[in-house]
Structure formats: C-alpha cells, structure tokens
Write a structure and sequence with these properties.
Number of strands: 3
Largest sheet: 3 strands, antiparallel
Strand content: 15-25%
Helix content: 40-55%
Shape: globular
Radius of gyration: 12 Å
Strand order of the largest sheet: 2-1-3
Number of domains: 1
Number of helices: 4
Order of helices and strands: HEEHEHH
Length: about 80
C-alpha cells in the first residue's frame, strides 16, 4: 500500500499542503485542491508534505529515511485496518 515511491512523490510535491491520504483502501498523494473535492471526500490524511519534511528534517532525505518512514506508515495503516 505505502511504499518508498509514494513517500518520494509526496516529497517531490510543490505544495507543502499536498498530503499522503488513504481512500477506499488505497494510498495516494493528493494536492490541496484534490482534498477539497468530492472525489476525496472521506479520505484519511496521513501526513502533509510540510509535516513530512519537518519529521525527516530535510526535503532531500537519504533512502534509508524514506524506507523507514514508508515502513512505519504502512505498519500504522495496517493496524488501523485501512
């Protein structure tokens, strides 16, 4: 569900309000306009780009940090039953 590619996609987003969301059992990156649309109604926001950069301490983290965060997010979402 959540892998390194999704974390990198969020890091590469141009807007700090872009977010990693789970909707209907699928994780994806959504921009701020998307989050306000009907298509994303009910989506669970896991983390914004701004929060991700703050947590990692950089917008260009090493692969190890990206991998570790993807594993943590995947585990957390799995425990929620999403």
């Amino acid at each position: 569900m959540i892998d390194e590619a999704l974390v990198r996609e969020l890091l590469d987003a141009t807007d700090d309000d872009a977010a990693l969301v789970v909707l209907e059992g699928r994780a994806r990156v959504a921009g701020p306009a998307d989050l306000d649309s009907d298509a994303f109604r009910g989506a669970a926001v896991l983390m914004s780009r701004g929060e991700l950069v703050e947590q990692l301490g950089t917008s260009s983290p090493a692969q190890e940090g990206v991998t570790r965060l993807a594993e943590t997010l995947r585990d957390t979402v799995g425990k929620l039953g999403a």
